[in-house]
Write a structure and sequence with these properties.
The chain has 398 residues and is of the alpha/beta class. It is 23% helix and 24% strand. The chain has 2 domains: 18-47, no CATH class; 55-397, Metallo-dependent phosphatases (Purple Acid Phosphatase, chain A, domain 2), CATH 3.60.21.10. It has helices spanning 3-11, 41-46, 63-67, 69-78, 96-105, 132-141, 157-160, 172-178, 235-252, 277-290, and strands spanning 60-62, 81-86, 119-122, 150-153, 204-208, 211-215, 258-262, 270-271, 273-274, 296-299, 305-314, 317-326, 343-344, 347-353, 357-363, 367-375, 382-391, 396-397.
Length: 398
């Protein structure tokens, strides 16, 4: 027998029993490591994440940075900030994505811009699949051709995914369109007038009238989400803690605004994708350290609408926090499996809808109101699906 044959025989591994090497009832702490995978599927997933790009400067923007000083002042004087939010859209023209975009456009009043939505907050998965640079034409600029509002975003897992030949760099196309050095109409948009956004990074704080919004990147895994770790790095969580500490200081000075935190991956989900408890624990750690919890938590990833009420005690006060999954932007139509009123740990499943649509947020001095709007993919007809209001003084919902 040759040396090469002997070497091959000695190094050949026994085939795994299942395609999923972690399919076993043995608890992780009692499993033998399976090189190079570890003991849990989570070990493998964490090894496939991407480093989170560091922002060039402090990733804070104001409403004036997005819509101009006059527009921001008009909304401040009107006493209400309205914006759209939805995720999981990348589909294209002549699809439910375009129908939802056209439905959102009807919420604008050219005669009263201060009463119109200030922007669309995209919750991630703007683009799907390879050749993302080119896909922005068909999956973003064309479907939103008639949508008059500015669009800000956090990346989803598909925005961050890589392909060796077409998309070797994670988030390259996303950053070119949302974190550009200047606002220009990119060549890929052609005759469609929509400028690139100049957001400071893939995670950020929006300091707006009546509400602060913290958008986080939960990385590129199909599931679950991560906001920090060995590969993603610690700087995003450090940013979160720093901004929460600043908000806590401002609240100590009597400046109480609403706080929204958003990730693409949902902490809780009962259909389409599972929740990301470890990600939520990571965020909770920063929130508990700073003594500030969000008043509302938004996510997408599961292609449907879901709402949960989470009960959290902070500084001796019980908070009721809506956790909203708004992934009904047009990509596809995901099922929801939980029953209304189902309680699991500290949260209750309250409402859901399988279908397409979007959500609106209204922020005032004392309240945050979230409305879910269903959109018929054939007719474009809109319907009211769900509504919840958070009282910022009492942390109660109605």
């Amino acid at each position: 027998m040759s040396t090469a044959t002997t070497r091959t025989a000695k190094t050949k591994r026994e085939p795994l029993r299942f395609a999923h090497p972690f399919f076993t009832s043995t608890p992780p702490e009692r499993r033998a490591p399976i090189p190079p995978f570890g003991r849990r599927m989570l070990d493998h997933i964490q090894g496939t994440l991407h480093a989170i790009p560091k922002p060039a400067s402090d990733p804070v923007m104001t409403l004036a940075d997005i819509i101009g000083t006059q527009g921001a002042n008009d909304i401040d004087n009107a006493g209400t900030l309205i914006f759209h939010t939805v995720g999981d859209t990348g589909r294209g023209k002549d699809s439910p994505q375009e129908t939802v975009a056209e439905a959102m456009a009807t919420d604008f009043d050219a005669a009263h811009p201060e009463k119109s939505p200030a922007f669309l907050f995209h919750l991630g998965d703007v683009i799907y699949g390879p050749q993302k640079d080119q896909a922005y034409r068909t999956e973003f600029y064309e479907p939103y051709e008639h949508y008059p509002g500015k669009i800000i975003a956090i990346p989803g897992n598909h925005d961050g995914e890589t392909f060796p030949t077409t998309d070797p760099s994670s988030l390259k196309a996303y950053r070119a369109n949302f974190c550009a050095a200047s606002a220009v109409v990119p060549p890929i948009a052609g005759s469609i007038f929509r400028q690139t956004m100049t957001m400071p990074g893939v995670y950020w704080l929006l300091d707006a009238p009546f509400v602060d919004i913290i958008g986080l990147y939960s990385n590129s895994a199909e599931n679950p989400g991560f906001v920090s770790g060995q590969i993603p790095g610690a700087h995003q969580k450090a940013f979160l803690l720093a901004k929460l500490n600043k908000i806590a200081t401002e609240r100590g000075q009597g400046k109480r605004k609403g706080l929204i935190i958003a990730t693409h991956h949902p902490p809780f989900s009962s259909g389409g994708h599972s929740g990301s408890q470890a990600m939520l624990d990571d965020i909770d750690n920063a929130c508990q350290t700073a003594g500030v919890m969000p008043d509302v938590f938004f996510a997408a990833h599961a292609h449907n609408y879901q709402r949960y009420t989470r009960r959290v005690t902070l500084n001796g006060r019980l908070m009721q926090i809506p956790f909203v999954v708004a992934g009904m932007g047009g990509r596809n139509n995901g099922t929801v499996q939980a029953a209304t009123g189902q309680v699991e740990g500290d949260h209750t499943f309250v409402a859901s809808r399988r279908g397409f649509g979007y959500a609106t947020v209204e922020a005032t001095v004392g309240t945050l109101t979230i409305r879910s709007i269903g959109v018929d993919p054939d007719t474009g007809a809109k319907s009211n699906v769900d509504q919840v209001t958070v009282d910022l003084a009492t942390n109660a919902i109605s």
